[in-house]
Structures are given as structure tokens and as C-alpha cells.
Amino acid sequence: MSELIKIIELLNDEDGRCFKAIINKGLNDSIKNGDKFLVVGIGRELFDPDTKESLGKLEIVKGKAIVLHAQEKMATIESINYKKEFPIKTVEETMGGVSLILSHMGRTKKTTYEEKEKILLPFEKIEIGDIAKKLEE
Fold it and tell me: Whole-model pTM above 0.90?
């Protein structure tokens, strides 16, 4: 598959956020359900300040995606970008490995972190024509 894989359609939710999009390659191009991609926009060309040599065009990362549904000539991808949250857990801190003695004296400190759900994030400013680069696992 030598041609670029491009975003050809955006599937925005009712709030205008884009969690799903369509790419222009599918089963005929060895794209299958579960494949992962990095979605990038192409920025301006950048040059080395000393040699003036072109370093290429800047790739602006817009998110990671997974193929939900591959058809013959296209596929639906979905964002797999999540907001990092802390899971619920309790940590016991003791002094000098004498937790049994201290716990009876009320000196064990327990800290509980609040549980927060894992929040799926939309693609960042994704546009039709952006590139989807297949990630090797």
C-alpha cells in the first residue's frame, strides 16, 4: 500500500466533536478491524537553521485511532485517546516495617484516591484530507 491513507469523512457527534472518521482504504488494502493509526495533519515545511536543508513538512498529531469496521474500499476509525485519570486505590503507609504494632496503636496512615472514569477524547481539529499512518504493534 504505497498511496497515502486519508481522512475522507468526519462523523461528528451532536456537539460537533469528532470521535469517528472514515478513511479511504479498506479490506482491499489489507486494512482490518483492530488496526491502529496515528492521525496527522501536514504543516509547513521546516528547514535546518544552519544548513538550510529541508527537514520536511511538520506532522501535527491529531490523535490515535482504531479501525471499528473495515469495508472493501474504506474503513471507519474511532479515537482511542483517553484523558488520564487515577483509579481508586488505598495506600497504607507505615513506619519502619512495624505495621502490625502501629496499626494497633492507630498510627497507620491510609490514603484513598477517588475513582474517576476513563474519558474518551475526540480527535484534535481533524480535517478531511488529514493523513492516517498505520501503527505497527
Answer: no
